[in-house]
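Example record

One chain of 320 residues, shown exactly as stored in the release files.
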Amino acid sequence: MTDRDRSRRRFTAAVLGADAVPEPTPVHHRVARGVVVDATSYMLCVATAAGEERFLYERVTSFWRGGEVMPGELRPGDDVVVRCSHDGRLVAERVWAQAARATGVITDREGDCLSIDPGHGRPRLSVVLPYRSSGRIGVRHPRLEPGYLFDAVGVWRNGEVEAVRPVTTQPPYPLGSTPRRPPTREYSTTVSGIATWYDPAWGRASHLDPRAVAAGAAYPALDRVGHGDGCDRRTSCVPLPLLSTGATLSLRNDCTGDTAVVPVVDCAAADSWLCDLCPSCGSQSAGRLASLTMTSFVALGGRLEAGCFNATMTVADQEG
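Predicted C-alpha cells for this chain:
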C-alpha cells in the first residue's frame, strides 16, 4: 500500500468515523453523494455511505463548483453529488461540488449579507451576495429587503451560502401582501407545475448524515393529521391534494422525460409561498409541486445549478 493510499484511507476513516457502520439509503443507482477524498485529471475518489467509490471521467464529463470548473479544482473535503453515465456507476457524467440553496423570506439585510428564514422551524441561513452575481440576482429579485421572498443557488463557503444565480423571478411585493387565493375544494391526482430541490442535510454531508442521500420529496400540502403539524401553512399556488408523510408521488421531468416514484418525507411550506415559473422547456405551468432531495432531483435529470424543472405529478399512494 502506498503512502497516498494510506493517507486516503485515513481521510475516509475521519469522514466516516472509525466506529461507524454506514447504512446507505437507497437512491437512484446513477447518483452518489459523498465527500471528495481525491480528485485527479482522470478519476474522482469519494467517501460515500457505502465506503470509498471511484468514478472515471470521459471527455464530456463536466464539473460545477459555483460555475464550470476543471476536475483539479475539486478539493478534498468537498461535498459532491455525482450523476453517472447511463452505462453504469463507473463513469461520472456530471459532478456538483459544495452546492447550496437558499429559499425563503428575507428577515434582515446588512450590506451584501442576507438572513433567510426557510420556514417550518428550520435554522435561518446566512447568504452572501458577491458583486459578480449581484446584477443577475437583482434582475429576478428587484427588492432584496425584509419581508420579500428569495430563492438562489450557490455554494457553501465557511458555513454561509454564497449566492451564484437566482432560480426563478420573485414578485415585487412582500410575502404579507400576497394576493389571497380562495381554497380549492376539488383536487386532481395529476397536476403540472415545477419541481425544485432542497438539501435535507443542510450542507453537512461531510458527516454522511443519512438525510444527505435520502430519496424523497418535501411536499407543500401535508395533512395535519398525517404528521403535518409542524409545517407552516399557506394557501398553495397549485391545487394540491392533502397528503401524509409516507405517501408516494410519481414525478416526471417534462424536460427530459425521466420518471421516478418518491416518498413524501418532509413538509415544504416555503415552496407553496412561491407562485413562479421555471425557465425550462418553455412551459407556462406555475407553482411548486414538490421540493426533491438533492439526490432525487439529480436522478430525475435535474441540474442543481438550474434549481428547477417543469414536472407532472401523479399521486401514486395516499396511504400515510
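Notes: Residues 3-16 form the longest helix (14 residues).
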